[in-house]
Amino acid sequence: MQDHELIPGVMLGALGGSERLMIGALRLIAAGRGRCPVLTNAFESQLGSQGMAGARGATILAHALSSESQRKLTLGWLCVRGVTWDEAAILAMLEAAQRTDSPGIARWLSRLGIGQPSPVLQRGIAWSAAAFSVAGKPFDRDVGNLTRASTSATAHIREQIETQFGERGI
Questions:
Q1: Are 84 and 6 in contact (CB under 8 A)?
Q2: Which of 53, 66, 69, 167 is 20 to 30 A (C-alpha) from 108?
């Protein structure tokens, strides 16, 4: 992971509990630690009776995103306090799913390099989004604005690249 893959000025600790839990879970799963009982306990602590569904959804989501994307997705390492562009897009996609905003989901999936999601990916999105919503811990609607952070020249360049890729359907 390179510095330009982090959103300038956006720290994980500044996000809400739901966002931190999901990013932490995705990072753990990507690191091969998805079966850690502490992860399931964290979901159950945060989401109560929806904890198991949330943990299962995050696992499905993590595996399906990495296998279906046409590019390598960037997640932060476990110890990284910043948020990557891809992590912000995943959170924004889940927030759009909670609002049943199909065009929003498609837009964020395209930013993640996914054209048409498989039924497995759709299930991972639905379970993850629903578990947080039903538990009364929805994702913050402003999370999509994280990808508009432009506090440095690098961030501005990244935004231009994302815009160009989005327009070309890449």
A1: yes
A2: 53
Residue 90 burial (CB < 10 Å; 0-12/13-18/19+)?
buried
pLDDT of residue 164: 52
Q: Could you tell me the maximum CA-CA distance found in the chain, to the nearest angstrom?
A: 45
Q: CB of 20 within 8 A of CB of 91?
A: no
Kindly give the pairing relationship between strand 6-11 and strand 82-84.
antiparallel
pTM score of the predicted model: 0.83
CA pair distance 151, 62, nearest whole angstrom: 29
d(CA 79, CA 151): 23
Tokens of 15: 């996000």
Q: When comparing pLDDT for 9 and 106, which is higher?
A: 106
| Residue 25 phi, psi dihedral angles, 5° rounding | -65, -45
* DSSP label of 145: G
CB 140 within 8 A of CB 95: yes
